[in-house]
């Protein structure tokens, strides 16, 4: 009798340890999920939601990278300079620079003739 | 879903930050620099030391001033004088395009987007025993220098 009992127990253990039949794996997995994590989240149950969340995350990361790039590199580009000046006459020279002591941008114009005192004094 | 709402909130904040904020007006001043006794010009108190660092004169006298609103679509002729004047043209978004004229001849043109606390000094011609200097500075309307 003992041998038969042992054989039955071994048989039941063997049945439990057998792999799930093909086609029933997903059903078994869905039944197992609530036991493991409670409610099944919408993102994991719906493939569309899953990919949408990934796309949104990717978009957020791309936007952050773009914003950081704009802030970091825009002032270094020629078009992003805070100021520029160009002389429009051959005997006039305009030089732009930043004075760190004065903490100010400067346009230094050379070659200007003096302004004479007239009735239209500034 | 939480991630989606978070992203939407973050997007709104980011767009708000990146979009051109309401720019403060640009204060424009015409200053005569010379080596007379320094004066306590109320509007130039904070700029005197900076001006001296660049131009070296002892005294700076405010001769004319004006305020240009950012975002305006029309040019403004500030500091008019028949033979010497500065034309200011606010740009879309921010910044200002300026042109310096002498006898209706364009001498220098440029563009600047003054940052608060970082003025632009334009060295003008000699005048009497000193020099004329233009100052462009972005300041709150109620806090002109």
How would you summarize what this structure contains?
The complex is a heterodimer of chains A (122) and B (145). By secondary structure, chain A is an alpha+beta fold. Among the domains of chain A are: 20-75, no CATH class; 82-110.
Chart the SSEs and their pairings.
The complex is a heterodimer of chains A (about 120) and B (about 140).
Chain A: H1 2-17, H2 25-37, H3 42-45, H4 47-73, E1 83-87, E2 93-99, E3 104-110
Chain B: H1 2-18, E1 26-34, H2 48-55, E2 59-68, E3 76-78, E4 84-90, E5 96-102, E6 105-112, E7 120-127, E8 130-138
Antiparallel strand pairs in B: 1-2, 1-8, 3-4, 4-5, 5-6, 7-8
pLDDT under 50 segments of chain A (min length 5)? 76-80
Distance between the termini of chain A: 122 Å
Largest sheet of chain B: 4 strands, antiparallel
Adjacency order of strands in the biggest sheet of chain B: 2-1-8-7
Q: Please report the total strand number of chain B as a whole number.
A: 8
End-to-end separation of chain B in angstroms reads: 50 Å
Unreliable residue stretches of chain B: none
- Order of helical and strand elements of chain A: HHHHEEE
Our Rg estimate of chain A from Cα atoms comes to 39 Å
Helix content of chain B: 10-25%
What string gives the helices and strands of chain B in order? HEHEEEEEEE
What integer value in Å does the Rg of chain B equal?
Answer: 19 Å
Number of helices of chain A: 4
Q: Into which percentage range does the β-strand content of chain A fall?
A: 15-25%
The structure class of chain A reads alpha+beta
Shape type of chain B? globular
C-alpha geometry of chain A: rod-shaped
Structure description:
The complex is a heterodimer of chains A (122) and B (145). The longest helix of chain A is centred in the middle third of the chain and has 27 residues, at 47-73. Chain A contains four helices and three strands; from the N terminus they run H-H-H-H-E-E-E. Among the domains of chain A are: 20-75, no CATH class; 82-110. Chain A is 49% helix and 16% strand. In chain A, strand 2 (93-99) and strand 3 form a beta hairpin. Chain B has 145 residues and is α+β, with helices and mostly antiparallel strands. Chain B has one domain (23-138). Chain B has two helices and eight strands. Chain B has helices at residues 2-18, 48-55; strands spanning 26-34, 59-68, 76-78, 84-90, 96-102, 105-112, 120-127, 130-138. A four-stranded antiparallel beta sheet of chain B has the order 2-1-8-7. A four-stranded antiparallel beta sheet of chain B has the order 3-4-5-6, with no helix packed on it. In chain B, strand 7 and strand 8 form a beta hairpin. Chain B is globular. The N and C termini of chain B lie far apart (50 Å). Chains A and B meet through helix 4, strand 1, strand 2 and strand 3 of A and helix 1, helix 2, strand 6 and strand 7 of B.
């Amino acid at each position: 009798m003992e041998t038969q009992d042992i054989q039955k127990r071994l048989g039941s253990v063997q049945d439990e340890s057998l792999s799930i039949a093909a086609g029933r794996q997903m059903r078994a997995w869905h039944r197992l999920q609530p036991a493991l994590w409670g409610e099944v989240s919408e993102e994991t149950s719906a493939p569309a939601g899953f990919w949408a969340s990934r796309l949104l995350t990717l978009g957020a990361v791309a936007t952050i990278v773009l914003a950081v790039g704009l802030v970091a590199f825009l002032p270094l580009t020629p078009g992003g300079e805070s100021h520029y000046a160009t002389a429009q006459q051959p005997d006039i020279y305009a030089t732009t620079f930043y004075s760190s002591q004065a903490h100010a941008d400067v346009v230094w114009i050379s070659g200007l003739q003096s302004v004479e005192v007239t009735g239209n004094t500034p | 879903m939480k991630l989606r709402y978070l992203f939407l909130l973050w997007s709104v904040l980011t767009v708000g930050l990146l979009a051109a904020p309401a720019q403060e007006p640009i204060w424009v001043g015409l200053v005569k620099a010379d080596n007379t006794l320094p004066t306590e010009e109320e509007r130039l108190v904070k700029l005197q030391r900076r001006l001296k660092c660049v131009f070296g004169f002892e005294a700076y006298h405010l001769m004319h001033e004006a305020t240009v609103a950012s975002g305006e679509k029309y040019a403004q002729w500030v500091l008019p004088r028949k033979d010497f004047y500065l034309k200011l043209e606010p740009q879309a978004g921010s910044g200002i395009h300026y042109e310096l004229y002498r006898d209706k001849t364009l001498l220098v043109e440029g563009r600047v987007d003054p940052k608060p606390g970082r003025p632009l000094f334009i060295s003008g011609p000699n005048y009497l025993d000193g020099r004329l200097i233009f100052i462009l500075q972005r300041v709150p309307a109620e806090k002109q220098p």
